[in-house]
Amino acid sequence: MPTQHGMFLSLEGVDGAGKSTHIQWLCEQIQKLGHTVVSTREPGGTELGESLRELLLHQPMHLKTEALLMFAARNEHLEQVIKPALAQGNWVLCDRFSDASFAYQGGGRELGAEAVEALEQWVHPRLQPARTWLFDLPLSLAKERLSKSRDPDRFEQEQNAFFERTRAAYLQRAREQNERFRIIDSSQSIEAIQDVLLTDLQHLHSGYVRL
Questions:
Q1: Structure pTM?
Q2: Cβ–Cβ contacts within 10 Å for residue 176, how many?
Q3: Contact 167/155 with Cβ under 8 angstroms?
């Protein structure tokens, strides 16, 4: 289904779920379907957003400050990148969006969904991704993958209970908004995951109508 004039797609999942492995591949598939694609990420996506990303990933702060900075970066991202790209008829592929705030700040940090929802309603009350792929897998496997990738940031250093709450909040969000969510079993092989993604991407393309 179209969002604005283009198509807004997002990828979500706990750290180590493997979503980043598929971003470039997804961009290539979208281009093969004949669409211009803008690939971006959160927090980040703009010069200000990338500066805020460094603070969020590496500087200790109060959980309310963290949530507010996430949405400050998101607002800039929406105004400078996402909305203009959609208005031009482009497809936008975003590595995390507001669902991450429901999961990490609302669930992991235990701020609660109500506070995050208030920020969401203020910053983008009528804009959601047309499709959100939630990469899900057991915490033990996510931690194993993460340990092999890079030095952990402030979030990745959290204890297991934090990630269990984050994962649970993601799955709750997917249940509440199941029409746009597709849960991907990220314990599968890359090839199996890409088969699922490609089938869904082709479905989205076939139903796409330019407004």
A1: 0.92
A2: 10
A3: no
Helices (H), the chain: 23-32, 47-58, 63-77, 83-87, 98-101, 113-123, 139-147, 160-176, 190-206
Structure token pair of residue 109: 């940090």
Q: Is residue 2 part of a domain?
A: no
* 185 CB burial (10 A radius; 0-12, 13-18, 19+): exposed
> CA 203: distance to chain centroid?
20
Low-confidence ranges of the chain (pLDDT < 70): 1-4, 147-151, 209-211
Residue at 179 is within a domain? yes
Structural domain boundaries, residue 42: 7-206
First to last CA, the chain: 11
Q: What are phi and psi of 97, to 5 degrees?
A: -150, -150
CA neighbor of 37 nearest in space, from 2, 95, 4, 86? 86
Q: Which of 29, 27, 25 is nearest to 38 (CA)?
A: 27
The residue among 83, 120, 76 whose CA lies nearest residue 99 is 120
pLDDT, position 150: 61
Q: 7 and 130 in contact (C-beta within 8 Å)? A: yes
- In-domain check, residue 211: no
Tokens of 57: 């990933």
Q: Which two tokens stand for residue 139?
A: 């915490």
| CATH number of 29's domain | 3.40.50.300
